[in-house]
Design a protein that fits this description.
Number of domains: 2
Strand content: 15-25%
Low-confidence stretches: none
Structural class: alpha/beta
Number of strands: 13
Strand order of the largest sheet: 1-7-6-5-4-2-3
CATH topology of the largest domain: Aspartate Aminotransferase, domain 2
Order of helices and strands: HHHEHEHEHEHEHEEHEEHEEHEEH
Bound molecules: ligand 0PR
Largest sheet: 7 strands, mixed
Radius of gyration: 22 Å
CATH architecture of the largest domain: 3-Layer(aba) Sandwich
CATH superfamily of the largest domain: Type I PLP-dependent aspartate aminotransferase-like (Major domain)
CATH class of the largest domain: Alpha Beta
């Protein structure tokens, strides 16, 4: 750190200069991210209440209370009349909390069975908690292979994990079957719907055929669902919802030095952004179910337009028809790495995975962006005689 401070205008100028090469969601060129430009209203609430710390219920009891209302609203979306949970730093923390609770519930057991499609944060949570990872292959629909799950269950198994909206392809595992297995074998079942949580309930309403994934299924114990992904809230806003309060009680800690006595917390971090909680509260109220329904409808229209275009490009194919607004593109005779590089030269940001390229059609991606993208993609395929 330099000894003397600099003028704000100088610092700000340097900041702007340094960051100007980075893309914005607004440009429509980011197709690689599960985050998006947060909604203006949520941002205004976030900045207005920036100093709030929901981690201290003695100082900010109203924010604490409003977090409970947020949990109730999200619980409602997930068919849970008695939810408990928190707004946390992200899906990774949500997944960690869920497995921590699971470990406390099923003492003496250590095996956690997850699909190969699970987000990396689950493997990390298993490592942090010193549990034993069992990864299960996928079936031809890229869902967890239930027969393999069955074979992997033994008397050391403590939890199953299902994904509802996989990171790579937006696939929903057969959570109903996992739920049955969890109930039969007395296992904890966690569902990672960090992305899909703010999509699937609306897809259902729009008439898409999607699997059940929520607390309607009796075996489901907890669900990760992130407002800072398809919930359009500012980062950091992950969400973890448990079936009822008894789960959180297992990881609650009493802090004796609050402003006028004790308070409790059950998250990894003790200081937490109250602004994030209030932004989620405000946006859920402002949008309501119908607001999110509109967003998901638009994202699906753009996704379907993209699918049509991809189907027309010789040499490229879909990994699978998209379940939600995540599209995987593969090719047998074209080096996708080259395509990604060419697209990058034209300013597009897309994800390159070992088997396919991934496009996430977030709300900042409009139809005209996709038209432009596909025009570039076609040109690249043609130009390089991939055709
Ligand atoms: N669970 C699932 C299914 C996820 O896809 C992710 C994040 C998480 C949990 C973890 O959530 P947090 O990142 O909030 O802790 N998946 C995104 C991805 O891998 C993370 C991301 C987001 C990466 C935006 C890049 C980016 O620009 O795509």
């Amino acid at each position: 750190m330099q000894r003397k401070g600099l003028l704000k205008s100088y610092v700000f100028h340097e900041l702007k200069e340094r960051l100007k090469c980075e893309p914005t969601y607004e440009s429509g060129m980011i197709l690689s991210s599960m985050c998006t430009k947060p909604h203006k209203f949520a941002v205004s609430i976030f900045t207005k209440f920036i100093e709030k710390n929901v981690g201290d219920a003695t100082l900010f009891p109203k924010v604490f209370e409003m977090e409970k209302e947020v949990v109730k609203m999200i619980g409602d979306l997930l068919s849970n009349p008695h939810p408990s949970g928190h707004i946390v730093s992200g899906g990774s923390e949500g997944n960690l909390l869920a497995l921590w609770v699971a470990r406390k519930m099923k003492k003496g057991k250590n095996k956690v069975i997850i699909p190969k499609s699970a987000h990396v944060s689950l493997r990390r949570a298993i490592d942090i908690l010193n549990l034993k990872l069992v990864e299960v292959n996928l079936n031809q629909n890229f869902q967890v292979n239930i027969n393999e799950v069955k074979r992997a269950i033994d008397d050391k198994t403590l939890a199953l994990v299902g994904v509802a909206g996989s990171t790579d392809l937006g696939i929903i595992d057969p959570i109903d079957e996992l739920s049955e297995l969890a109930s039969t074998h007395d296992l904890y079942l966690h569902v990672d719907a960090a992305f899909g949580g703010f999509v699937i309930p609306f897809l259902k309403e729009l008439g898409y055929k999607v699997n059940d994934f929520d607390f309607r299924l009796k075996g489901v114990d907890s669900i990760t669902i992130d407002p800072h992904k398809m919930g359009l809230c500012p980062i950091p806003a992950g969400g973890i919802i448990f079936r009822n309060e008894s789960y959180l009680n297992l990881i609650k800690e009493r802090i004796p030095y609050g402003a006028y006595g004790e308070f409790e917390y059950a998250t990894i971090t003790s200081t937490r952004s109250g602004a994030a909680v209030l932004a989620v509260w405000a946006l859920l109220k402002h949008f309501g179910f119908e607001g999110y329904l509109k967003i998901v409808r638009k994202c699906m229209r753009v996704t379907e337009a993209l699918v049509e275009e991809i189907n027309e490009i010789k040499g490229l194919a879909l990994m699978t028809p998209p379940i939600m607004n995540i599209v995987g593109i593969r090719s047998e005779n074209i080096d996708l790495h080259l395509i990604v590089n060419e697209l990058a030269k034209r300013g597009w940001f897309i994800s390159y995975l070992p088997t396919h390229i991934r496009l996430v059609i977030m709300p900042h991606v409009k139809l005209w962006h996709i038209k432009r993208f596909c025009k570039d993609l076609k040109e690249i395929v043609k130009l390089h005689k991939f055709d």
